[in-house]
Amino acid sequence: MRRLMQRPNWRYAGVVVGFALLSSTALADIRIGVTVSATGPQASLGFPEKNATKLWPHEIAGEKVEVIVLDDASDTTRAVTNTRKLMTESNVDLIVGSSTTPNTLAMIDVAAEGKTPVISLASSARLIEPMDAQRRWIFKTPHSDSHMASLIAEHAAAHGVKTIAYIGFANALGEAFLTEVQRFADLKHIRITDTERFSPTDNSVTAQVLHLLASKPDAVVIGGSGTPAALPARALAERGYSGKIYFNHGVSNNEFVKLCGKECEGAYVPTGPVMVAAQLPDSNPAKAQALDFTRRYEAAFGKRTVSIFAAYTGDIGLLLQRAVPVALKRAKPGTPAFREALRDALEHVRDLPTSTGVVNMSPQDHVGLDQRARVMAQIRRGEWRLADEAKSP
To answer: Which residues of 192-214 are buried (b: 16+ CB within 10 A; e: fewer)?
Structure first.
């Protein structure tokens, strides 16, 4: 009897071992946490970003990829809460997000404290510059404000613009873009006549627009993102403004064009290759990837649904395919060592064609795009056209 009682229960032991093996496999999966503004004022950015995560590879270098998507509802506090939750509860290897500059700025210290790499979907260079102990964990796929502000200044100067007025969001995005607009306008000897601010939740900008018009600018630059950026354009149209209007790249989607309607007819938008992919010359290094992403995204979510925000998100799949195999040589997913290895691998991605340009990261450059990644588009008859092409009927 005693001998019988001492015999191990091999059936039970087999269940335990099997469960342990399954658990080990699950822990080895690469986990990507996502926090985007799928609802709220910036939903026209976050919703396509959320969609684009479904196009990421499900497996890289033999490891399954698990994606956990949270909505921060365009709210900074929730973006920080989501960041903490993804790190502490989901033990993610990488965080993608958020959709806006203010949200991502608020996430930096939290991510750095948890030593978890972040790839932001927001544009401001303040997210990655100046490089320091916190920002070494932050990367981004969107073009920086300097890319787009420089293109606005170049285009405006080439078309005889001598004076510009600016109206932008009263937040980090608006202020960062204004800084770049002022810098490049000065280089092209273009004078800034007035600057105004508005909130993404405002219902009217009448007072601000009246001030702008009183300064009689040749062109107006609108520094906003998503559908709220249409508000100043509408107010300018209502008052018969006939000068040039420039937006920043934060409006690069068809939903914005649909909402703004005829009030945005003829407006210029510095943007990425994906918005005018079919019109690009074959020599453009981003054309092939831009066309491929457009095809896959619109096959999944409908014609005329692609946006620059979806493309910025889709490009992360390309970055991961390049960086993950390198990181796996150093550590297993789900560990601090893997997060560090993935951060290091991202920092050394070179010569990677994406739908937004050719990426060349470095320890001092965590976006890796150069001036070739910019194109000037124009909104004509509700469509995105290359600015030069837009002159044709």
So the answer is: bbbbbbbebeeeebeebbebbbe
With H, G, I as helix, E, B as strand and everything else as coil, classify residue 171. Answer: coil
- In angstroms, the CA 12 to CA 101 distance is 53
Q: Give the percent of the chain with pLDDT over 90.
A: 89
- Residue 160 burial (CB < 10 Å; 0-12/13-18/19+)? exposed
CB 276 within 8 A of CB 16: no
Q: Omega of the bond prior to 150 within 30 degrees of 0, cis?
A: no
State how far the alpha carbon of 117 is from the alpha carbons of 63, 144, 321, 345, in Å.
19, 19, 16, 11
Q: Which amino acid is at 75?
A: D
Instruction: Look up residue 249 and give its two tokens.
Output: 């790249």
Helices 287-301 and 308-328 pack at an angle, to 10 degrees, of 110
Tokens of 365: 């450059």
Kindly report the pTM of this predicted structure. Answer: 0.87
The 10s digit of each residue's pLDDT in 69-119 is: 999 999 999 999 999 999 999 999 999 999 999 999 999 999 999 999 999
Q: Which residues of 42-74 are buried (b: 16+ CB within 10 A; e: fewer)?
A: bbbbbbbbbbbbebbeeebeebebbebbbbbbb
Per-residue pLDDT tens over the stretch 242-260: 999 999 999 999 989 999 9
What average pLDDT does the segment 357-386 reach?
Answer: 95
